Amino acid sequence: MAITFNNDRPLDIIAIGRACLDLNAVEYNRPLEETMTFRKYVGGSPANIVIGGAKLGLKTGFIGKVSADQHGRFIREYMTNAGVDTSSIVFDNEGRKSGLAFTEIISPEECSILMYRENVADLYLTADEVNADDIKQTKMLLVSGTALAQSPSREAVFKAIQAASAHDVKVVFELDYRPYTWKSDMETAVYYHQVAEKADVVIGTREEFNKMENVEEGTNEESVRRLFRYSPQLIVIKHGVDGSYAYERNGTVHHGKAYKTKVLKTFGAGDSYASAFLYALLQEKTVEQALHYGGASAAIVVSKHSSSEAMPTEEEIIELMANGETHG
Amino acid sequence: MAITFNNDRPLDIIAIGRACLDLNAVEYNRPLEETMTFRKYVGGSPANIVIGGAKLGLKTGFIGKVSADQHGRFIREYMTNAGVDTSSIVFDNEGRKSGLAFTEIISPEECSILMYRENVADLYLTADEVNADDIKQTKMLLVSGTALAQSPSREAVFKAIQAASAHDVKVVFELDYRPYTWKSDMETAVYYHQVAEKADVVIGTREEFNKMENVEEGTNEESVRRLFRYSPQLIVIKHGVDGSYAYERNGTVHHGKAYKTKVLKTFGAGDSYASAFLYALLQEKTVEQALHYGGASAAIVVSKHSSSEAMPTEEEIIELMANGETHG
Amino acid sequence: MAITFNNDRPLDIIAIGRACLDLNAVEYNRPLEETMTFRKYVGGSPANIVIGGAKLGLKTGFIGKVSADQHGRFIREYMTNAGVDTSSIVFDNEGRKSGLAFTEIISPEECSILMYRENVADLYLTADEVNADDIKQTKMLLVSGTALAQSPSREAVFKAIQAASAHDVKVVFELDYRPYTWKSDMETAVYYHQVAEKADVVIGTREEFNKMENVEEGTNEESVRRLFRYSPQLIVIKHGVDGSYAYERNGTVHHGKAYKTKVLKTFGAGDSYASAFLYALLQEKTVEQALHYGGASAAIVVSKHSSSEAMPTEEEIIELMANGETHG
Amino acid sequence: MAITFNNDRPLDIIAIGRACLDLNAVEYNRPLEETMTFRKYVGGSPANIVIGGAKLGLKTGFIGKVSADQHGRFIREYMTNAGVDTSSIVFDNEGRKSGLAFTEIISPEECSILMYRENVADLYLTADEVNADDIKQTKMLLVSGTALAQSPSREAVFKAIQAASAHDVKVVFELDYRPYTWKSDMETAVYYHQVAEKADVVIGTREEFNKMENVEEGTNEESVRRLFRYSPQLIVIKHGVDGSYAYERNGTVHHGKAYKTKVLKTFGAGDSYASAFLYALLQEKTVEQALHYGGASAAIVVSKHSSSEAMPTEEEIIELMANGETHG
Description:
The structure is a homotetramer.
Chain A: E1 11-16, E2 20-25, E3 37-43, H1 45-55, E4 60-67, H2 70-81, E5 85-92, E6 100-107, E7 110-116, H3 132-135, E8 138-144, H4 153-166, E9 170-174, H5 185-198, E10 201-205, H6 206-213, H7 220-227, E11 234-238, E12 244-248, E13 253-256, H8 269-282, H9 287-301, H10 314-323
Parallel strand pairs in A: 1-4, 1-8, 2-6, 4-5, 8-9, 9-10, 10-11
Antiparallel strand pairs in A: 2-3, 6-7, 11-12, 12-13
Pfam family, one (chains A, B, C, D): PfkB
Keywords (chains A, B, C, D): ATP-binding, Kinase, Nucleotide-binding, Transferase
Family (chains A, B, C, D): Belongs to the carbohydrate kinase PfkB family.
């Protein structure tokens, strides 16, 4: 097993970062201009991951800041009902809003997101609002890269990582790169690298690793060579329909093929991948199996309308792994 | 007639200010937390007024800035289709978003709006983007108070007013006070007063006049006494179900009663009032009649789901004036 | 007499705007890089004007905000000792600093100023900190254009003007254009015009009038034509060694020649001009005489090391007017 | 020897951070309000350290950003003349100013500094402006804590550290805590800790270590216990007249007493300490000797008027070590 977790903990995963609102087109296969009705869902990568984890049976928690309004209350309540421990979610008391994502689905190949991320509450979580006691009761701290985009959320993440390191909590860094808020590519590279150095597990797409390395087109070999000089034990690099690769510090490399599916939209693939992959790791499955869990979970979510509500059960994942067809 | 317009102009009204998106609850009579589906409409007070004016047969135009994204393009296209001249609408090329208003309708008495106004495109219209040539071809410039809330939109309004004054375009100031963006009550009072001094017609609720005067509870008599020292010729102060009062510079006072109606929500009342009142003035009806037009139009819109699409035709207004019942 | 003042007032002039620190090169006639020692003086156009006025025997006061530190305390104490009523000066309690001006005197023709104006205290005077009672006890409110460069100082000025207009206090607008802080030429033009419209007397250089009109090179005729449509009664436009022109609303034009002098540096000329010109007006001298007072005072200050301490007495001015040689 | 440097490098120390202007009271032993004349010097902790190092015979360089004005040009030229390689100093092309420090010397016990640090050029050094090639030619990168106070300077420092770590350049972290610019104590603690973790040598006062640990009053034992879990090899904690302590990773502790001196002011003590201490380390003297060098150098500078120009020669230091008296 690539990673050993401290099983003596009540929580499996606690995530830190954004919990937002998705406004998904009710009428899709058309430009957003022509979509007149929207359905709301909870969104945001780390929120989706813990919701997905809870659906798979994990005990999950969330550290973040939401708006002190109807949207923020909805987010917190939805996550609570989904089984996530939301006692570490705080409300913003300076009138900041929760982030929004309007999704546009023109076709499976043409999807885009119209983001409202201006001064959103999640980026104003402060280090003071991160409680080390919340972190030391979990096996794994999941850090979302977007939470690094701005102060004070950035320092809140650093404090959480410090607490994790002090209490033997494994740190998983989901790169989750979003071009909003960041001031420059260099800034992104500096902070992504800072966190990746301290993480035990790093997960991202090839494009996200390029962002972290501030290169046009990097190679997996170079990426893992750089990171294994620091703390990481396990590195997962995703290549879309070409599947994903997992690199262990001991030199072992694994490849997981991508499952074929009827794609409705591409949103939510990364979040569902992460939740199932981490679930498998926590269940002490092999890295190989974990890659299949991740791939199957992603394939299921891209065929459905939402990102959070569509998170699969383990039965659905096992069913697809058993009977699904893979690319290549 | 209280105001003489320069009839030698191709446009009746050009408005300056915000054009945004309303996201109205499809399921209403419940808290916003429980509303899962939203329908989008064009919104924003000055946009609603020119859409309403166009529906009544006026030739209207709009000066403003919208997002260079799907929402901004929808707004511009919707307004064009509604008959508004949108050639003076510019797109924001720095990634700013169009404002949003989520409406919550718990009951006719409990309505609220959840606003997204953080760094919105409309507040970034610059004075350079206001073209005096657009203004000199109209009878009336309608200024929305919210456009004064921040630079550079504030200076854009001042430039528009200077152009109007140089070309004998009457200036109508719709107070349209919204508590967002303003830094202090004193700031609001200073800029509202600056514009009111230069306006020919000033329209607002009693509460909005209080804001302009920075008082807890002012009187109509004091409000008109102060403003008639400057440019205003006609001042309209609205008192909800107690109807509205129009004050002419020559001392004449008119009272228009409010029409009874089955209220669904209170949004949009002011915009529909203004469009019908100004329509009547431009049609050279008496101030008395204009008050009735405004009141009837408001009564119709509050009984319907949207603010912009629900704008009445003149037939509907005349029908209500003929058969409607009034308060008090 | 061009302007009639309300003589029933204890103060002659109250100025609103900045009071700062000048750091003048002790060793001059060299680049600032090579100047190693600096002597501090109070500076800032409106501060200099009231200090100069006090030296001429006027009763003057000052409304402004200074740093709550040693520099701010020095400024207030210096002005008090110079005879200025400083009871309306407030201290900034948010740690903002007083502005600084390092002067470089390479030669009489090559002078420059290195300004520290980043978030300076004077630009944070608020409308709430302007007391109408301070204004109604004076004959004249002197507004410095630089105070319009940013909120909340800008609104503080508007409030002061409103108070002046309500209590028959004449408003003198000294354009005092400084390129710092302003975001665009259009913004400058908009606010300069707003204030000039409401002023009784407008004083500036030809270049400053160009800034107000947002033109490359305007003419005095056009400038006065525009402004006489509004409140101004008297307009003074300065043309350096070609002297200054005063335009009265009744069409009378006066020309005052510039006095020859041994120029040390050009700083402070405008401030000393304004203080002596306004002194003469308040003494009910003719506009013609006032132009000579202004010109003589300016000639004296440019021959000396500082701007504030070098302000002349009436004897010095009269002596130069009697025996001085003029340009052209 | 506690630290082994890569002697195969043309430079001994390259510092990153601020280079500013000190404006020292010519007339002292009085409140700053009463000081009328100021003499300018180059200032800023890392600038002082490399100037001091150069005076001791080290080859030093500087990475930083200064104003593109007379002050910035003076700073660069002064440092060049002092023997510092200034080829990595860049000029700010957005009009930002160089920082200023007015010193007030009421008595040796009552000194204070009035800082102008608002949007100063040095805090706008970007990661792109830090050249790894400049860093790989030196033995030691000196990082000043104040450079962490704000983006983008903060990321520039992180990039410099990454380059140092990639090229076997020892990192010395001089805590140099200044309360300006930092938004909160937690923010300071987070970034100080980030850098201290990666440094080889950490130097600061007891109060500065408290800031890094975000505690009221910490102990040296706890401070070194925490840091020796990471990269540091040598930690120096200064206790004023009680002298300084050096902790080696192997458990050795050294104490250096403070020298008695006729104190004029307390400024510059830390910078002169650091330059002499690092000089001794680079000369392969013992840690014990290095503590004496640091202490003697500090004692000399506090007896003189400036911080940069007063930096001692090695002869002066040796003389004091030979004949000076120590506290306690």
